[in-house]
Amino acid sequence: MAKKKYKLASYLIAKGLITREQAREIMAEQDGKKGPIRERFGRIAVRKGYITESQLNRAILEKEREEAGY
């Protein structure tokens, strides 16, 4: 059976890659954007220097594997 799905923010916090405060800052930035296209959480985290591109890619892959039950 597949495990619970997490939002990327919760997953990155659980893995110790970002803090709750950093997640709040990223979400506030997302909410402040106008228009139909919103920058993705992970992209903002990388742009702000909280995580590297490599850490983001690895976290997304691991998150998907865990959710799929692998």
What structural category characterises the helix and strand content? mainly alpha
- The number of helical elements comes to 4
How helix-rich are the residues, as a percent range?
Answer: 55-70%
Strand and helix order: HHHH
How would you state the average pLDDT, rounded? 90
Distance between the termini: 10 Å
- Which spans have pLDDT < 50 for at least 5 consecutive residues? none
Oligomeric state of the chains?
Answer: single chain
Number of domains: 1
Taking all Cα atoms into account, the compactness measure Rg is: 13 Å
| Percent of residues in β-strands | under 5%
The geometry reads as globular
Give the total of beta strands: 0
Largest sheet entry: none
Question: How would you characterize the overall build of this protein?
Answer:
- The protein is mostly helical and 70 residues long.
- The protein has one domain (8-68).
- The chain has 4 helices and no strands.
- It has helices at residues 8-14, 20-32, 41-47, 53-68.
- The longest helix has 16 residues, at 53-68.
- The chain is globular, with a radius of gyration of 13 Å.
